[in-house]
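Annotators were shown the component list below and the corresponding predicted structure, then asked to write short factual statements about the assembly.
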Amino acid sequence: MYYNENTIVYHNGEFVKAKDIQISPYNQSLHYGNGVFEGIRSYDTDCGAKIFKAEAHYKRLKHGAKVMSIPFNYSEKELIAISYKLLELNNLKDAYIRPLITMGEDMSLKSNTQSLFTMQCWEWGQYMGDQLLRVKTSKFQRPNPKSCFVEAKVTGHYTNSVLSTNEVKSLGYDEALLLDMNGYVAECSGANVFMEKDNKLYTPPKGNIMPGITRSTIIEMCKEENISVEEKLFTLEEFKEADSAFFTGTAAEVIGLKSIDEYVFPKDWKPSIGFQLMRLYKEEVLGKRHKKILAVK
Ligand code: PMP
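Structure shown to annotators:
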């Protein structure tokens, strides 16, 4: 699904075939989860392949490497150039791009002084599909910001996402909603959350969540489109009084929620603010959005 015998990846300074890559079993990040990665999308626009918010993604990657003490010297500009070259070599325009930094061979717990850098890309539809999601609150909380850098996309943090996804999928739900360590609504396992109440949007503030690039794009777009949005903590009980809700993320894009646990969001998706933002986001990533004032019903 992700590659075939002709697929090219970037690996430590060279473009090579994916099938020829070898990762050592002594790779420190394989054992301890101290790698960092990004999830980026490129779109097939009227001006060719366009990577959405490439600089913001590479800033986050570099920040992650820094806080995890992983040596990484590429500039944002170099990373963007590698990304476009990789797309070209794989003949892809609409694609998901996955840069990954891992450590060298080391079985100690101190960050190794060597790092490995790979970048892959593949065609990937909307990660959570395009149907409204039936979501369940997970028994797992998001990681406590006092135990790790929650704003960094660290590979090891994703055990929390895997646990919560496995939990709710095994119960027949589509996705997991996770609370933070204080019991407030935090985010989905791989996306941020917004709720609509009385024609206004609310989303949890930064601090206990992954500060998503899609989330900030949506907030910016709301400001430009005169949609009222507030970053504010809210409880699960408050979430279950919302009119409508949606998730945002690079892989998921903008996707509406049908229900949370037993609660079905009462507002239809089409008249919701989320639906309008979903359409505007599609235009935005394709460079086709004409800023306008939305008539919110
Ligand atoms: N929360 C989590 C836990 C994530 O893994 C992601 C995906 N990076 C997001 C939110 C959304 O972030 P972004 O919009 O930058 O993709």
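Statements collected:
1. DSSP finds seven helices and 16 strands in the chain.
2. Residues 54-67 form the longest helix (14 residues).
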